[in-house]
TrEMBL record:
<keyword id="KW-0812">Transmembrane</keyword>
<keyword id="KW-1133">Transmembrane helix</keyword>
<dbReference type="GO" id="GO:0019478">
    <property type="term" value="P:D-amino acid catabolic process"/>
</dbReference>
<protein>
    <recommendedName>
        <fullName>FAD dependent oxidoreductase domain-containing protein</fullName>
    </recommendedName>
</protein>
<keyword id="KW-0560">Oxidoreductase</keyword>
<dbReference type="GO" id="GO:0005782">
    <property type="term" value="C:peroxisomal matrix"/>
</dbReference>
<feature type="binding site">
    <location>
        <position position="198"/>
    </location>
    <ligand>
        <name>FAD</name>
    </ligand>
</feature>
<feature type="binding site">
    <location>
        <position position="296"/>
    </location>
    <ligand>
        <name>D-dopa</name>
    </ligand>
</feature>
<feature type="binding site">
    <location>
        <position position="324"/>
    </location>
    <ligand>
        <name>D-dopa</name>
    </ligand>
</feature>
<comment type="similarity">
    <text>Belongs to the DAMOX/DASOX family.</text>
</comment>
<dbReference type="GO" id="GO:0003884">
    <property type="term" value="F:D-amino-acid oxidase activity"/>
</dbReference>
<feature type="transmembrane region" description="Helical">
    <location>
        <begin position="6"/>
        <end position="26"/>
    </location>
</feature>
<dbReference type="InterPro" id="IPR023209">
    <property type="entry name" value="DAO"/>
</dbReference>
<dbReference type="InterPro" id="IPR006076">
    <property type="entry name" value="FAD-dep_OxRdtase"/>
</dbReference>
<feature type="domain" description="FAD dependent oxidoreductase">
    <location>
        <begin position="8"/>
        <end position="339"/>
    </location>
</feature>
<feature type="binding site">
    <location>
        <position position="241"/>
    </location>
    <ligand>
        <name>D-dopa</name>
    </ligand>
</feature>
<dbReference type="GO" id="GO:0071949">
    <property type="term" value="F:FAD binding"/>
</dbReference>
Amino acid sequence: MSDSRSYRVIIIGGGIIGLTTACTLLKEYTSIDKLQLTIISTTFSPETTGDVSAGYWEPYGVSLNDERMLRWARYTYDIFMQEFFSTKAAQAGVMQMPGHILKSQNDQQISENDDFIVPSFLPLVRHYRVLKDPEIRMFDHLGPVTGFVMSSVVTEVRRYLPQLQRFLECDSRVKFVRKKIHSFSELKGEADIIINCTGLSARELTGDLTIRPARGQVIRIHAPWIKAVYYFETVNEGVGYIVPQSDTVVLGGTFQLDDWNTTPTEQDTRHIRRMCAKILPALEQIQDGVEQAGLRPYRDGGVRLEHERTTDEIDIVHCYGHSGAGVTLSWGCAKDVVEIVKTLLPVYEQHSSDLPEHEQLWRLVL
Ligand SMILES: Cc1cc2nc3c(=O)[nH]c(=O)nc-3n(C[C@H](O)[C@H](O)[C@H](O)COP(=O)(O)OP(=O)(O)OC[C@H]3O[C@@H](n4cnc5c(N)ncnc54)[C@H](O)[C@@H]3O)c2cc1C
């Protein structure tokens, strides 16, 4: 039986946060035929921030003291893992692989009892192991390091987002509009609720100056022999990371706060190549590649996920400021956003399904 209530929801933002929210909304409002969901965005894939990202699951660039991060990351991990072991994996670009996370130790930091401190997100993954001798000796060429290997997942956003979009386009309740919103009041009277998933541009739209760019440059190369993720953090030279995708490998990276430059620089290219070749020396021989730079939506107080009723009585649920972890936190945040929406637009009829959670959220459209 379907519910005859009529709800109008607008999502601003067609990136990973906007589209995972849209899918979660449809899942929770399955019984509401008269839901009208409009997704308004200036850009869609392949022009979103996630399309530049490595799509690696790790709560990177966000504070892990915030208990919400771990909850969001855990739920998202479980969805991606279910997807890897489903018929979606190839088309959606979801890959399970080992992630080696290594930290350089300077001489003073090393002592006999210097056990690796396990990051709080590590127990969320299905399998991990702190590297012990002789395992750590694989990385002798990096000098003294500590680290761990974990079962991680890489979601290639430029494959994943088009699949979510196709699924959403097939639902008659959903409409896509490509345009820029300059102020929420432009939409007054057009929706019962607006969901703000505008990433870094939330700074302009909301006036929240605590959201700022954390510039990241990457190089996409052809290196088919690399089958695992390597992340190497040094004391004085920054980080290098290597993240395989389905037909390329992403080399990174930089994390430059308050830098708005979206053009790749020679200096960053040299730094990234040098750091990554330290980890895997064969990379010295690869000179080709496509350089890209994107702006992570970093926010001083962490992700803003909350309801606001404006002075002109517009209900907005904000969800922005995911920094370097928008892919990692996406499904978890979407779930919390929709829980807030449900307090404002109630669903009286509970829908139950035997499908696995990821299939309830979205399905491949062949
Ligand atoms: C180099 C790099 C590497 C990264 N690697 C990883 C990684 O390995 N793992 C990970 O989890 N994360 C990673 N990230 C971070 C991740 O990409 C971001 O956190 C995530 O993409 C943010 O998603 P979003 O949907 O909030 O923002 P966006 O992708 O920026 O989407 C916002 C959307 O809103 C639209 N919009 C904005 N303002 C308006 C407006 N006023 N009107 C209409 N539309 C509007 C935009 O057009 C856009 O489509 C990386 C980022 C970079 C740059």
